[in-house]
C-alpha cells in the first residue's frame, strides 16, 4: 500500500492544487484503498454490520438461525458450539473472526450459561433488535416474555420457520417436567435437553430420546420453548449467538485529512532526499 501512496503523491497536480487540496485528494484515495483492501480480506465470509442505532463504544451481540441442520443425539455442548461456528462460515466484524455459541441446553449445561449472561443488546444481522440484553432482566432474552422480535434469519438475511432444537425453557435453563412413570409411586423430573434425555414409560407409551423444541417465528416464548418434544435423531436448525462485539468509532474527516498531510509530507521528504542523492553522485 505504501508504494501506491508514493505513486499518488508523486503525481503532478499542477499549480491549482495547493498542499491542502492534495491532502484532501490523498485522504480520498486512502479511504477508497482501505475499502478495497477490506473487501479482499473479507472475501468468502459474511461481514457483520453495526446496527444503525448504535454508536462508538456500544456493545452488542448478533443472533442467527443456522442454515444447516443437526441431530440432537449428542449430550456434549461442544458438538453444538462447533456446529454453529462452522455454520457462521468465518463471519467477521471489524476484520476479526466472530466466535459463536449455540443456544441449546443439555443435561449438563444450560443455554444461558453456555452463551453467558450479558447486558448487551441482541440483534439480527439486518439490525433488527431481538432483545435488550442476553440476560434475565425485563426485555432480556431470558425474561420469559415475548421478545422485541423473534430471531428468524441466518447471517445472510434468509428467513426460516418451523421447529428448532433448544432443549430449553423460557428462562434459559434445561426444559424439564414432572412425570409419573407406570408402576412408580412418586413423580420424577423428566429432562428434555439435547442428548441423553430422561427415558420412561407412562400410560403404556415409552418416552425415549425426546428433546424439547422451539418454534422459529412462533411468537411469545415459543421461539425457545413450545412444550413439545421430538425424537432427537431428527435433523433441525438451532440458534446461535455471538460473543459481545464493540462498535468501533468511525474515523473523523479531520483524522483522515491529517493522515493524508502526514504521508504527503513524508513522500516530499523522500523525493527531496533522492534528489539530493542524485546531485551528490
Number of helices: 5
Element pattern in H and E: HHEHEEEHEEEEEEEEEEEH
Please give the radius of gyration in angstroms. 27 Å
The termini sit apart by: 30 Å
CATH architecture of the largest domain: Roll
| Largest sheet data | 9 strands, mixed
Predict the CATH topology of the largest domain: Mannose-Binding Protein A, Chain A
- Count the domains: 2
Content-based structural category? alpha+beta
Corresponding CATH superfamily of the largest domain: Mannose-Binding Protein A, subunit A
Report the helical percentage.
25-40%
Number of strands: 15
Dominant shape: elongated
Name of the top-level CATH class of the largest domain = Alpha Beta
In the predicted model, the low-confidence regions spanning at least 5 consecutive residues are 1-10, 13-17, 23-43, 253-257
- The average pLDDT value, as a whole number, equals 82
Strand content: 15-25%
Structure in words:
The strands form four sheets. Strands 1, 4, 5, 6, 7, 12, 13, 14 and 15 form a nine-stranded mixed beta sheet that branches. Strands 2-3 form a two-stranded antiparallel ribbon. Strands 8-9 form a two-stranded antiparallel ribbon. It is elongated and about 95 Å long. It folds into two domains: 2-45 and 251-280, no CATH class; 59-246, Mannose-Binding Protein A, Chain A. The chain is of the alpha+beta class. α2 packs across α5. The chain has helices at residues 2-9, 19-41, 77-88, 111-115, 253-280, and strands spanning 59-65, 92-93, 96-97, 100-102, 121-123, 129-131, 162-165, 176-179, 188-191, 200-202, 205-207, 210-216, 229-231, 237-242, 245-246.
